[in-house]
Design brief:
109 residues, 3 strands, homodimer, alpha+beta, DNA-binding
Chain lengths: 109, 109
DNA sequence: GAAACATGCAACTGCATGGTTGCATATTGT
DNA sequence: ACAATATGCAACCATGCAGTTGCATGTTTC
């Protein structure tokens, strides 16, 4: 499961907003999700396809309607595998290194 | 501080790898960071500029060398403010809704 | 069966962006 | 002072991608 696809999918604000909408109410149809935008239904379809390819959204057909469900797993995967790594180098480290540099340079030149 | 800039910055695999390198060893120069790629130094400069604009990297000049420091704060911001929201609709919710649908449709059509 | 409804598919457009090349600038070292 | 080193800046190119328009397909309803 490509983590790159998830990052790229999350890079677009419209797509993040789509996920927000699904978080508010899960299982919405295309038409429901396409309402209240300044973009066409087809554009929303494309965004949803990208979210689906990234496994962030699952779909289910009910008759002629396509229902969309939020899948938070990839987001948690990112949080767990990727973000956790950046917890190690503590904020202090940045301050420390900057302080080291300043004393190395000498402020009073 | 635009969260969109952070998402967009993280969307590129090269930039994520740059952050990884800085996580391994903080305070590297441009030349150090530009080594071992199949892209030019100038390309790396551009990536670093984007990371810096997103506040993911802080820079410090030491003479003619530019040192780069990882700033994990925006990543934690994303984790805290954005990802936490997607913890509410539990994984069960997806399964539940799918089950509801199936019983609604009737499997035997 | 025909009209209305929900969605899909394909071609095209414009703009953002990743990457390159070439040259300029500033700092270090001899 | 001069050569080498480290980086910046600008122009340019190619590709990706968000968005549109137009039409096709499948499903419900009367």
């Amino acid at each position: 499961m490509s983590m790159d696809a998830v990052f790229k999918a999350l890079a677009d604000p419209s797509r993040r907003q789509l996920l927000d909408r699904l978080r508010d109410r899960n299982g919405q149809t295309l038409n429901e999700l396409a309402n209240g935008w300044d973009m066409t239904r087809q554009a929303v379809t494309k965004h949803l396809a990208i979210l689906e390819a990234a496994n962030l959204v699952a779909t289910e057909w009910r008759g002629r309607e396509k229902l969309h469900y939020l899948n938070p797993v990839p987001i948690h995967d990112i949080a767990d595998r990727w973000i956790a790594q950046f917890r190690r180098p503590h904020l202090d480290a940045l301050a420390d290194l900057k302080r080291d540099l300043e004393s190395e340079n000498g402020d009073e030149t």
